[in-house]
Amino acid sequence: MPKVDLYNMNGDVIGDIELNDNIFGIEVNENVLHTAVVNQLANRRQGTQSTKTRGEVSGGGKKPWKQKGTGRARQGSTRSPQWKGGGVALGPSPRSYSFSVPKKVKRLAMKSALTSKVNNKEIIVVDSLKMDAIKTKEMVKVLGNLKVDNTALIVLPEVDQVVVKSASNIPGIKTSYINTINVYDILKYNKFIITKEAVQKVEEVYA
Length: 207
Hints:
Elements: E1 3-7, E2 13-18, H1 21-24, H2 30-44, H3 103-119, E3 123-126, H4 136-145, E4 152-156, H5 161-167, E5 173-177, H6 183-188, E6 191-195, H7 196-206
Parallel strand pairs: 1-3, 3-6, 4-5, 4-6
Antiparallel strand pairs: 1-2
Helix pairs in contact: 2-3, 4-5
């Protein structure tokens, strides 16, 4: 089983913790990770861009000029795509970019993402993360103690608005819960900060 250091909020190593091999110690599958990230980004797309075809723009009921005898190309409507103010040929229309991924693939992608953090030594396990009041300054101090100097994803075992709001104004820091973590965020942030209790819940969910 992979073993990592266990920290407190002061940044001191107070012990170690063994992680589940089936979740934090598998062989990383990069193809599955790519599929999961593409799926998540595709599902975020709104797909609301739209253009009007020649049948949807207003006007154009009258033929611009007679069919023959003018020396000009025949035209049936001023709302054809080649006319100013005309419709758009083959333009985008509202659609859904989302697609589904099998549950087994999603689980494997999550395990691969978590394992990659362990392999790259980017995981920080803290015994607890509790604050008495909403103070960004205190959260900055905690992150400094843990030597987090760029971006980090903080994973909590349950809803804690004090911690969430204390971290919300810090650039590059995002908080999440066990039921809302995803592969894209895990890979996006350089550090993965998770509490000991959250680790236990992750192992219960993905065991």
